[in-house]
């Protein structure tokens, strides 16, 4: 299932993708079952906290709705009741609007270490981004006046679906709700001047994510996905998640050994080679540039770079 959070007239909804439409969970549930929608229909974080109940409920909704639509080509009743919205009529936001944690991994691709002339780390390098950096998969990235070295980093995001601490590697994937695309935008001059990474990676709009949270069963092998970053039609990053140094079970085990992971937490698993700062000469983003990140089976995100800041 491909879950999404989207807005219509600035009102957020939780839904899932059905063909070329988004289904609004809080409206389709009472339509199908003649009772009030449960709490897990409200937003993505609530959905994840209800774990199996919400997933089974959403799958039941999808089954019932497909059966209804299969008997008729007329979508008007569903469109008129605002149960369905065409995907091209909505504003995609990040799938999770208010995660408790965004945990990022540095230098987690072998090719990325090579381009920096850095050794393979013996343990994962952990840092964070504030959740105020989150923005939608097709929203603009704002270049703040404080930086002249704005860089791109395409990444696979893992979304946690169950609370856990000291999670064994062999059970780790059971704690994953699904996967998404993540753009770890970075102000390199600020990152290097601060000598730590938080501020240079946490400006508003520096974490585009989406377009969907693709649930775990639709991604049977997250360690064999092609990942590409294209800037202004030029291929800049071209790798595969098989090049991860620390795989997803290792990361979940490592992070949860002392830090409780909660539903909705995002783990950005690192970026492959090809980022702008390590090119010769370096390539940095400017207003008017576009960045497209594609991950196999997850779709793509596309962000325009614009001058300015959130008002």
> What is the β-strand count?
19
What is the succession of H and E elements?
A: EEEHHHHEEEHEEEEEEEHHEEEHEEE
- The named CATH superfamily of the largest domain: Fumarylacetoacetase-like, C-terminal domain
Number of helices: 8
Largest sheet: 12 strands, mixed
What separation lies between the terminal Cα atoms?
A: 35 Å
Name the average pLDDT: 96
Q: Helix fraction?
A: 10-25%
Radius of gyration: 20 Å
| The level-1 CATH class of the largest domain | Alpha Beta
CATH architecture field of the largest domain: Alpha-Beta Complex
CATH topology of the largest domain: Fumarylacetoacetate hydrolase, domain 2
- Total domain count: 2
Categorize the overall geometry. globular
* Overall SS class: alpha+beta
Task: Give the low-pLDDT segments.
Answer: none
Proportion of residues in β-strands: 25-35%
How would you describe the overall organization of this protein?
The chain is α+β, with helices and mostly antiparallel strands. The chain folds into 2 domains: 91 residues, SH3 type barrels (Roll); 206 residues, Fumarylacetoacetate hydrolase, domain 2 (Alpha-Beta Complex), CATH 3.90.850.10. It has 8 helices and 19 strands. Strands 1, 2, 3, 4, 5, 6, 7, 8, 11, 12, 14 and 17 form a 12-stranded mixed β-sheet that branches. The longest helix has 19 residues. It is globular. The mean pLDDT is 96.
